[in-house]
Each structure stands twice: as C-alpha cells, then as structure tokens.
Amino acid sequence: MNLHNSILEISCVNSSNFPDNTLPEYVLCGRSNVGKSSLINALLNRKKLAYTSSTPGKTRIINFYNIDEKLRLVDLPGYGYAKTDKKERYSWQDMMNDYFSNRENISGFLQLVDSRHEPQSLDMTMARYIKSYMENCYENNLSIPKWVIILTKADKIKKSEIEMRIKQTHDILNIGNYANIVLFSSVKKIGIEDLWENITN
Ligand code: GTP
Ligand code: MG
User: Fold this and answer.
1) What number does the ligand 1 atom closest to the CA of 54 have?
2) What mean pLDDT is reported for the chain?
3) Separation between Cα atoms, residue 143 and residue 108, nearest integer Å
4) Is 55 a residue whose pLDDT tops 90?
C-alpha cells in the first residue's frame, strides 16, 4: 500500500454523496477533540491532510480518505460536543444514522478514547453500539468488522499509569474478546505500526 497515494476523497453531510462502497472502510469514532483527525495525519505520515483544531467540534462533516485505492478511513464528527444550538445536535445524530445504516462495507471500527481519563458515558454508549453492530453481523452471517480501541494522547500519561488505564478501559467498556487496545500518540508517533497491523491483519 502506497501511503503517499492518500487523498481526501470527499466531504459529505449526508449519504447522497457518499462514495461507492467497494473498498473496505475503517471508521474513526470518538469524542470531539480526542484526536481523530490528528491520528489520520499521523497514520498517513502527512502534516495537514486532515484538518485538526484545538477547538472541539471542528469536524462537522463526514470525511472519506481514500488510501491508495485499497481502503478508506472515515473521519466522523466527534460526539459529546455540547452545542447549545439543538438543531446542530440533531443533525449530528441524523448524520450518524445516515452513515451507519448505509455502509455495508464497514471493515473496522477505530474507537478513540482519551488515555488521560477513564472512558466516559458516551464512550460506553459507542462501545455498546459497536458490539451490537458486530453481533448483528454475526447473526446474519455477514463478515464481522474489527473493533480497535485506541487510547490517544499517550504522550500525556505517565508510564506507570498505562497498565491501569488499559485494564480500566477493558473493564469499563466491557470489551471481552471483541476488541484490541492500542496505545497511541500522534505527537510522539506511538502506536502507528501497531494500529496498521490491527487494520491490515
Ligand atoms: P473533532 O474534529 O473536533 O471531533 O476533534 P478531533 O477528534 O479530530 O481532534 P483533533 O485531531 O483535531 O485534535 C484535537 C486537539 O488535540 C488538537 O489540539 C491536537 O493538537 C491535540 N492532539 C491530538 N492528538 C494528540 C496527541 O497524540 N497528543 C497530544 N498531546 N495532543 C494531541
Ligand atoms: Mg476532527
């Protein structure tokens, strides 16, 4: 796979302009500001392919990145960004429903969780959703997507806390044998190979 051959293929607000679903698709989900867009840049070794910002809630659209015509990474808008404008939040929910009910080609869920804190209730909600999605695939004899939980901003936690956080994430998200956990830092480039291995193997 030639990572240099990565492009932002299309940015969408709804399924009417989603790209075709012929490529395996790996979808990034996580709280707003957890580091989804930064992870895309780190994974692809690019500085500014994905737009990042210290202001939460910047990615309000679904971005499809095409990696060498082999797979797609999908950057979903982050959850948990409490905007006072109700209309905006509903459109976020609509966007999620639109995405998850229209993509049979989801090959993996890359769920990002901030390594500095224990998983929050929205992380648990997402984890339950992913698990039920996987179970539904199992029951219907469809291929089961992978689930990788990525602990982000690992450069910010003490080495001595790593094991505790991994175990806590495992327990709180109740992942059993469903998911692998990868420790990651876009800043210090930790976990990039580990994550690629999880995606491609
Ligand atoms: P939304 O698009 O708002 O959902 O956010 P996002 O999840 O795409 O987060 P983004 O990648 O834009 O990063 C948010 C902030 O966290 C930025 O200020 C980044 O510089 C910072 N950040 C991202 N990854 C890391 C990391 O590995 N380590 C540290 N220390 N900061 C990071
Ligand atoms: Mg983003």
Assistant:
1) 18
2) 91
3) 11
4) no
Give the global pTM.
Answer: 0.94
Tens-place pLDDT, residues 70-125: 999 999 988 887 654 555 555 677 888 889 988 989 999 999 999 999 999 999 99
The CATH code for residues 6-200 is 3.40.50.300
Across the strands, what pairs with 66? Answer: 7, 72
Ligand 1 neighbourhood includes 115 CB (under 6 angstroms): no
Dist CA 104 CA 142 (whole Å): 9
| Ligand 1 in reach of 63 Cβ (< 6 A) | no
C-alpha 35 to ligand 2 mean position (Å): 7
Nearest C-alpha to atom 21 of ligand 1 is from which residue? 35
Pocket flag, ligand 1, residue 185 (CB < 6 Å):
yes
Q: Round to whole Å and give the CA distance between 17 and 70.
A: 20
pLDDT score of 185 more than 60: yes
According to the model, what pLDDT value does residue 57 have? 63
DSSP E strand boundaries for the chain: 6-12, 25-30, 62-67, 71-75, 106-114, 146-152, 180-183
Q: How many CA atoms lie within 13 A of 58 on its CB side?
A: 13
